[in-house]
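Weekly modeling sync, notes
Attendees: AB, CL, MP (scribe)

Item 1: holo prediction request
CL wants a bound-state model with magnesium ion before deciding which constructs to order. AB pointed out that an apo prediction alone won't tell us much about the pocket. Agreed to run with the ligand included and paste results into these notes for async review.

Input as submitted:
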Amino acid sequence: MSDDVVLRIEGLRKTYETGRVRALDGIDLVLRRGEFVSIVGPSGSGKSTLLHVLGALDRPDEGSVWLGGQDLVTAERLDRVRARSIGFVFQLHNLVPTLTAVENVELPLYALDVSRAERRRRAEELLVAVGLSERLHHRPSQMSGGQRQRVAIARALVNQPELVLADEPTGDLDQETGRHVLELLERLREERGLTLVLVTHDMAVAERADRTIRLIDGRIASS
Ligand SMILES: Nc1ncnc2c1ncn2[C@@H]1O[C@H](COP(=O)(O)OP(=O)(O)O)[C@@H](O)[C@H]1O
Ligand SMILES: [Mg+2]
């Protein structure tokens, strides 16, 4: 595998309900380091399923998924792969309500061998990078929707992942706030050389990517 390939999938299939629902029906895809790829397609076309398989949240029924040098189909501990290599941003921020911003951002680092001081340092550095230096010790309920999504982005980056996956990260925000969150992701991607895969309904958002993949019925229609 050439050095600049972050992820390679071939012949990916995933069904639900013992085969009745074909969520992914033969997907081939190569992602290169630093690429920004958007995924669009109608509701139910398999976008979230694809992101979950790419992000080691779920295993396919068939096909191969290589992330870095690792085969995600046979990897014994997907949780470890995730902890080391993947950052996830969901539509709803999924922050822990009882924890402060900095504590939420630190969470992924508990699965890694990172000292307490280093955890705090990295979480604070990222919250500053996403423009929340004044909100380090606020809880999610004390922040706006856009600020919560910024915390979620900081949390997704704190393990210094190879691959950042975002599933409609602006879908729950008003247009203006959504645009700011997107600009933030784009800036971080540029500054940190991240590989970014973004699922969106919004063609204006999708078109900002280096390339757009359209899914229809679990297949790639064009890319
Ligand atoms: N956990 C599940 N159990 C059963 N069917 C599912 C499950 N998750 C997704 N599906 C089905 O798989 C297909 C693809 O879903 P999904 O990946 O969520 O699409 P999208 O994100 O594009 O809306 C849909 O038909 C959906 O109903
Ligand atoms: Mg979805």
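Recorded for review: The two ends are 21 Å apart (CA to CA).
Action items: CL to compare against the apo run; MP to circulate these notes.
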